Amino acid sequence: MSSPATPPTAQDTPLGGDPPPVRIVTERHGLGVRLGHWVNVVALFALLFSGLQIFNAHPALYWGLRSDFERPVLAMAAEDAGGGRLRGTTTLAGRRFDTTGVLGLSVERGEAVERGFPAWATLPSYRDLATGRRWHFFFAWLFAVNGAVYLAAALLGGHLRRDLAPTRRDLRHIGADVWDHLRLRFPKGWAAARYNVLQKLAYLGVILVLGPTMVLTGMTMSPGLDAAMPWLLDLFGGRQSARTLHFAAASLIVLFIVVHLVMVLLSGPINQLRGMITGRYVVVVPKEAARPGKEAKEEA
Amino acid sequence: MSGDPHRRGWLAGLGAGLGGLWLAGCDRLSRSERALGALGAAEPLNRAVQRLLGRSALAPEFTRADLSPAFKVNGTANPPDTDYQALAAGGFADWRLVVDGLVERPLSLTLDEVRALPARTQITRHDCVEGWSCIGEWTGARLGPLLDRAGLKPQARFVILHCADTLDDTAPEGLRKYYESIDLVDARHPQTILAYAMNGAPLSVGHGAPLRLRVERQLGYKQAKYVMRIEAAATLAGHGAGKGGFWEDRGYEWYAGI
Prior knowledge:
Chain A is an alpha+beta fold.
């Protein structure tokens, strides 16, 4: 999962000042993490968009063993707005919102049609449940296997304990870290080469909670697996609850991806992207801190 | 540096462009037989894993308190076919269930004869491929003993269910009527029944009167309604478009365990 730190190569920057800062190339992400990350990017995109295609076949969610059609948790529909016009509505926990143009009613191939999510959010863009399911189950396997290999390697190889588990010191500084993030002040120097506590908690939440929830709630929707593993139904309170939780966990993953991308953009996108593609990540430190110390090894 | 408005505009343009390319690319792949074939690799994998985990596992059964107050009618609600309408008008007195194909003793049974076969009652969940679920109580003849009575020939690998209803009259001849198929593992499963009663009453027309299949570990479209004939076959070729069912011929998975 992680490769040993290569000796940092120090290059003096032309910038003057006292003390002169030094650019140091560190080994940030191991090959396994990088491969797993990009497989995940492809799989998650296919799963999110094909998932919304599947959702659109019946754009309503329920709680419990079966669908209580009169009492959906969430429902999208088009309704008569008077004067021959239609309105898209979204009902969430009994409250109705006008979501014309996006949810319930949107434009598909130049025509306003009743559909849960709009064409740009589904795979394929036109209505085709059979094809959406093919995309979904193919990438569900890729996502599940990729996630299982990553988790096993992260547990056995120490990535989880070494890089992701918050230290006691991390947890003591959580307040300061939140305050720094709110002011968009990100760690500098050697501290930038390691995950901060908010990052650790967000990644752990996705890896240990949201990822497994997606896979297990997906499995609970399978009548075949419900026969083989009836405990799945007990775990999530029934197939329709599992479908609702599948949607909720996916929504949280979308939220994570948005925050993740914003953070990458705000904290030096070129350096971050290089780190996730080649593994090399540059930190800028004062000259006296540039020796390959204990910390440099810990980053790997 | 990300506050530069030019860069932001450039980034937004790039995002929209990539988004458009992504959509167009995915739509193109979705229409390619080759890509669909590759994506379809998940279906045999799902079947293999589900069979490995519980070849003879029973689908969960529920209680009367869990019954859906309004079980949704989907697909055909009332077959437009005149021969079916005539049978329905006569209270299905002239209806016969034909069992033929690769069997030693072809059968032709009246509804009363079907009702006299070894039966099972079960309260199970019906999962539509669209995503919703309803719970109903079904009583019907177990398919396994019926197949034993007809005597399957050794070459038989599938059971094909021919139905009375035309669901797509715009399709070419041979693709208009509903049909389904299952393999012998599911055909011999104890919960696989030919149901003639639902929630304690004779099956209604909307739910497939007089006889429908219940194959409880698969999705709703496998639960063929208006069953007229059961054919034991060695292959799915030669029926419809050869994919094993009305919806299968339209791109849906033959193994619908998920």
